[in-house]
Amino acid sequence: MELDLGDLSSVRRFTDSYHNSHDGLDFLINNAGVMALPKLTTTDGFETQFGTNHLGHFALTGLLLPALLARPGSRVVTMSSSVAVIGRIRFDDLQGAAGYNPWLAYAQSKLANLLFAFELARKVSVAELNLVSVAAHPGYSATNLQTSGPALRGSRLGVRGASAANRVFGQSDSQGALPVLYGATAPGVRGGEYFGPGRLFGMRGQPERVRPPRAARDAETARRLWQVSEQLTGIHFGGVQQPAT
Question: Does residue 150 form part of some domain?
Fold first, then answer.
């Protein structure tokens, strides 16, 4: 089924079609993403990294929530990145209008993924819903994600450098997929947990529970981001409550 997370009308068409053809959903893995792109905007006018990596997944999860709740024990796994550690949610300039740095915009979007996953976990816990929301990151996994930004900027040197770094430092894409698969399928996973590779400062290795960066544990920032995301997307999560302060 076709889905473009950079276009909220595509997200709505996809979820409408899904509900018409399925009676539930066991797992939702919010894994799509773009990284360190030049300044671009989505169909709806959002900065592309924030709009695709965070707002698209926020809308997708909210619109699929009825299908998830129809399957007790369903799981939502949202893919973040180790780069989230340098992220900051710039509420005064979420779209990078006042100043755009591709890596800081990426870090913001990946911190937003963590804040969303943990806030969803808090909300379903308060509402006593049988759904698990967790996050994961792939470490340094060699994919075309590293070369897409330089390619869009027309930097042949950047593409060569990213390709070389992938060969030297990166683990395989299949190895990088293990943390998110662990979060989706392993027994004993609890809402609000975070999974990533366990070796070389989280860059490679077998998946294990890891500690999220401090900024991702800020409940007030998470609540504010949730409210802003609802306003920007027009999507409201029916059936979940605002956690008590």
Answer: yes
